[in-house]
Amino acid sequence: MKPVIVVHGGAGRIFKEREEGSRSGVIRAALKGYNILKEGGNALDAVEEAVVVMEEDPHFNAGCGSVLNEKGEVEMDAIIMDGKNLSSGAVSAVKCIANPIKLARLVMEKTDHMLLTDQGALAFAKAMGVSEVPGEKLITERSLERWKKNLEADSNPQEFQKDLGTVGAVAVDHAGNVACATSTGGLTNKRVGRVGDTACIGCGGYADNNVGAVSTTGHGESIMKVVLARLVLYHMEQECCISPAAPPDLKNEL
To answer: What residue intervals traverse the membrane (predicted)?
Structure first.
């Protein structure tokens, strides 16, 4: 099968001054994943490495570009899934980890679990030899400015959600195996401990060799209401489109 990879840098608007950097970032991510596939690599490695590129690019709301929670800290979620056997790994509300997507893969391959969160995920990362990074190294000037602005009495945090989004990738390799990977810093000024759709299997991503692979982005709570990633694949199975019965706020996100 001809290998293919598709990446996204998040839903929403992109300000003019950030267009070039954002476009360059997704191109580099796509090329990183595609080069793995072109050399005979598997879909799982391709989507992981593509997402790593975006986690390390401050233009995106993932890794070092993540938005801040209500306390001014970075808390991140990520998921990865192998369509060959439905294996999946995820982490949520993790801090001080440069590449949450890599930790999610370790959860998938080194534990009997699918999701680890917060301190449990951090303890697992230490056990796996994953280095912590100082939390401030993940905070960009832009994220800090947004956080401060949202603390003002007349601010509207929802307005800033329109130009920030989760990143992700889906791929199919030479063997016909598919995979997905999704990573995010979540919502700006979110409550401490808030976990959105990204880390939830079937919401932030889903991959099944019999159908396809999906990585979602948008308003997490709306996505979770309908388990969007799995819903998309269900409609692909039915040779149908997105259900007209989807909640109005979800329709606006798609």
So the answer is: none
Query: Domain coordinates of the chain in residue numbers?
Result: 4-253
Closest CA to 29 of 1, 2, 59: 59
Strand, coil or helix: 132? coil
**Tokens at 2, concatenated:** 């001809």
Place of tokens 């149908």: 240
Residue pointed to by tokens 């007209």 = 244
Structure tokens at 20: 């070039």
Query: Which residues are marked as active site?
Result: 166
**216 Rama sector, left if φ>0, alpha if ψ -120 to 50, beta otherwise:** beta
d(CA 63, CA 212): 26
Distances 229 to 8, 10, 42, 192, 208 between C-alpha atoms, Å: 14, 15, 21, 25, 11
Rounded to 10°, the helix 43-55/16-38 angle is 150
What whole-number distance in Å separates Cα of residue 202 and Cα of residue 233? 9
| Per-residue model confidence as pLDDT tens for the chain (254 residues) | 899 999 999 987 777 778 898 999 999 999 999 999 999 999 999 999 999 999 999 999 999 999 999 999 999 999 999 999 999 999 999 999 999 999 999 999 999 999 999 999 999 999 999 999 999 999 999 899 989 988 887 666 565 555 567 999 999 999 999 999 999 999 999 999 999 999 999 999 999 999 999 999 999 999 999 999 999 999 998 875 545 455 555 444 44
